[in-house]
Design goal:
Blueprint (H helix, E strand, L loop, with lengths): L3 E3 L15 E3 L31 H16 L3 H14 L4 H13 L3 H14 L5 H12 L3 H14 L4 H13 L5 H11 L5 H13 L16
Antiparallel strand pairs: 1-2
């Protein structure tokens, strides 16, 4: 199944006005940790101004232009805007995250992981960078690391469906069939979600031995 870019989580949980976008699909949510990478000036790919000259407003403006380019499918142009955003303010977490997702879309996994790690360090209370870093691990076949990052994201935001979904999928990929997986699936089914995820979740509950999955309390929106 071809992955799609969605705007549903652009705002994330950091704060309004600093968008984050996440790549979402049933087969792969799209969504390597380099210790100290974000704070190592000698390894930074950006030409940053001194701390006193940071221009966060300019960084926000460039980030917004990058998101507009993403919506048009202009990923190379989006990358330029996100990098320019970070030249204005290297500590602007949303631009790191959004640049990472642009790189992930281009299968540039090492660079994407670098950006997600920076975003996670700069915005430790936001689950999105952790989810996205886990996506890099998952796409490159490192499931144990992916599970660890998904679990960290879920500890940050315990009811975050965008974290629960890929964690459940990763558990299934690793062959887990225990009560913890079943409880996670049932909790996920009770959360408002996308139809394709509801179908997958119900099928996994049935596979684990429950023939009648609990009905979700929210109506499934019709197309």
């Amino acid at each position: 199944m071809r992955a799609r870019l969605r705007r549903e989580s652009f705002l994330g949980t950091i704060q309004r006005g600093i968008p984050i976008f996440t790549r979402v699909a049933l087969g792969m949510v799209l969504a390597l940790i380099l210790a100290g990478a974000c704070t190592s000036r000698s390894r930074s790919p950006y030409h940053t101004a001194p701390h006193a000259q940071r221009d966060t407003q300019a960084a926000q403006d460039c980030n917004a232009k990058g998101l507009t380019a993403v919506e048009k499918g202009e990923f190379e142009n989006a990358e330029k805007h996100f990098r320019k955003s970070l030249e204005h303010d290297i500590y602007y977490a949303p631009a790191h995250n959004n640049l990472g997702l642009t790189l992930l879309h281009q299968h540039r996994y090492y660079e994407a992981a670098w950006e997600f790690d920076c975003a996670a360090k700069l915005a430790p209370d936001s689950p999105e960078p952790r989810i996205n870093l886990a996506l890099v691990y998952e796409e490159t076949g490192r499931l144990s690391q992916a599970v660890s990052e998904y679990e960290t994201a879920l500890r940050i935001a315990p009811d975050h469906a965008v974290a629960m979904r890929p964690l459940a999928r990763a558990y299934v990929k690793t062959g887990r069939e225990d009560d913890e997986l079943r409880q996670l699936l049932e909790k996920l089914l009770l959360s408002p979600g996308e139809p394709q995820w509801d179908v997958w979740t119900r099928s996994q509950i049935v596979r684990l031995g429950r023939t009648t999955p609990p009905a979700a309390p929210f109506p499934t929106p019709s197309d």
